[in-house]
C-alpha cells in the first residue's frame, strides 16, 4: 500500500475529473520518491495509459514534472504548492526562529508538527542530528500514535476520528502507508489511547522509542487565542544522551516557555497580504508554452487554485480565489470542491484554506534535492542546445570545484569530472565566483593568490585580474580564452540565491577553434543565461523553507 486513502466515498458529481487524476499521478510520483516509468504510473493509478500521457504532458507544461526517457520525474517547481500552504499558515516564518533558538539553547533537534487527520506532519525542522539514523523532512507524515505530538493532537479527536484511526490501523497495521517511518511492531498503537489520556491531563507528551530504537522526544502544544492546538513543538534526542524521562526533565521547562512565546507570536498581527501569485501560476506558465502538446486545461486551472493561497491570503472566499487566479467563478468553485474532496482544502463558512496535506505532493522528497541535482537536468538541456559541455562549480578555498558536469560527445583535451578542482583565477567559473565575493574577501584573495602562468595567455598580474573581476561583476559573465590550458575556452555566469548572493557558477566550455570570441558571446550567452535563470528559479522555490545543500 502506497498512499493512505484520504477520501470517503466516491467523488461528488461536480468534481473536476482531470484534477482528481492529475493529483493521483502527483501523489503516486511522490510515493515513488519522485520518479516512475509512465507504464508503472498507469498501473499504480489504475488510469489508462493514454490518460497518464495526457496528464503527464499537462503537468510537464505547468513545470511540475519533466519526462526523462520513459520516466516522469517531479521537479522543484512543484514545491510552490507546499510553499503556498507554509506561506499561508505562517508557522515556519512566525515560529521557526523560536524553534531554532530552542535547538541552539538545548543543543538538541527541535521540530514543529501540525495535525493531519490521524497523522502528524512536520512543517519545520531545526536539526542537530547526531546519533540519530532518521531525520524527518518538512512535509513528512507520521502516524499519530508514533510521534510525541500525536497524543496531544488525539486529545481533541472526535469519535469519528478515532473510528478512522482504528480502520487505518486494521487496514495497515505495519504503517506501510507512511514511507517516512520504519514498519511498526504494534507497540505504539497499543498504548496510544492511554498516552492520549495522559497528554490531555499533563499537556505534554513523550515518545519513548515509538519510531525506532534510540529515538526519544517530548512535545508540548501551541495554542491559538481560542485555545485550539495549532501545532506542537518537540525536542528530539537519542538514548545515548537521554532517557525519555531525563529528556522530559531537562527540556520541558524551556519547551513550555518556547510554546508560550510561540502562542504570543501567533497572536501578533498577521503580516500584510503579499502580492497574488497569479502571474507565475501553473496555468499561466502552461498557457505560455507552444500549443500542440497534449494539454488538459481543467487540470492546469485546478492546480492554479492551490497557488491562490499564500502569505496574508490564508483564508479566501470563492470570489477572491476566482479573482486571484483569473478563473471563471464556476471553474474556481468546482476546483475547490474537488480539492476539498481530496482533503487539500477545507471550508469554514464562506472561507477556504489549504490543509497541510498538500505537502504530500512531493514536498518532502523534493526538499532533499541538492543544488547539483537541481541543476543537472537544466545543464543537460543546455548541452542539447549548444552541443558543447556545461558544468557547475563552487569556490572551495582558492579553487573551483565541479559539482556537476554534462560533457558533449565531442572529445575534449581536458578530463573533468564532478569533484575536479582547478585554481580559480584562470577559469571563467572561478572569475565569476571571485567577482561575486564581498570586496574584502576578494581583496584578500588577490593579495595572497599565486598567479602562475599556465599558458602564455594566463593573466598573472593581480592588478590586471582585479580589473577583470570588476568587469565580470559589471557584465554578469566571464569569458576566459586559453588561460587554463591551450585550446580551452569557457564562458560562465553566476547562480544567485534569493538574497542575491552568488552561490555557484555555470559555464559552457569548448575548444577555442569552434567559434570566434565574438561568436562565443553572441551564440552562447543567451542560452547560458536562460539555463542559469531556470536553475535559479528552481533553487528559489526549493530553498524557501528548506536548506538546499550544494552537493
Ligand atoms: C522529529 O522531529 O524528528 C521527531 C518529533 C517527534 C517525535 C520523534 C521525532 O516523537
Can you describe what's shown?
The chain is of the alpha+beta class. The chain has 20 helices and 18 strands. The chain has a six-stranded antiparallel beta sheet, with helices on both faces. A six-stranded antiparallel beta sheet has the order 15-14-13-18-17-16, with helices on both faces. Strand 7 and strand 8 form a beta hairpin. Helix 5 packs antiparallel against helix 10 and helix 12 packs across helix 14. The radius of gyration is 26 Å and the shape is globular. The chain starts with 16 loop residues before the first helix and ends in a 9-residue tail after the last helix. The N terminus is likely disordered. The structure holds P-hydroxybenzoic acid. P-hydroxybenzoic acid (PHB) binds next to strand 8 and strand 9. The site of P-hydroxybenzoic acid (PHB) has 10 residues, from strand 8 and strand 9.
Number of helices: 20
- What small molecules are bound in this structure? P-hydroxybenzoic acid
Low-confidence sequence ranges: 1-5
Q: Main β-sheet, in a few words?
A: 6 strands, antiparallel
Q: Distance between the terminal alpha carbons, to the nearest Å?
A: 32 Å
Short description:
With 551 residues, the chain is α+β, with helices and mostly antiparallel strands.
Detail the topology: elements first, then pairings.
Blueprint: H1 17-31, E1 35-37, H2 38-45, H3 49-61, E2 65-68, E3 71-74, H4 79-89, H5 91-106, E4 109-116, E5 119-126, E6 141-143, H6 148-154, H7 159-171, H8 187-190, H9 192-202, E7 205-208, E8 215-223, E9 229-238, H10 244-267, H11 282-288, H12 297-306, E10 316-317, H13 318-325, H14 329-341, E11 345-348, E12 351-354, H15 363-366, H16 371-386, E13 389-396, E14 399-406, E15 421-423, H17 428-435, H18 439-448, H19 462-475, E16 478-481, E17 488-496, E18 502-511, H20 517-542
Antiparallel strand pairs: 1-3, 2-3, 4-5, 4-9, 5-6, 7-8, 8-9, 10-12, 11-12, 13-14, 13-18, 14-15, 16-17, 17-18
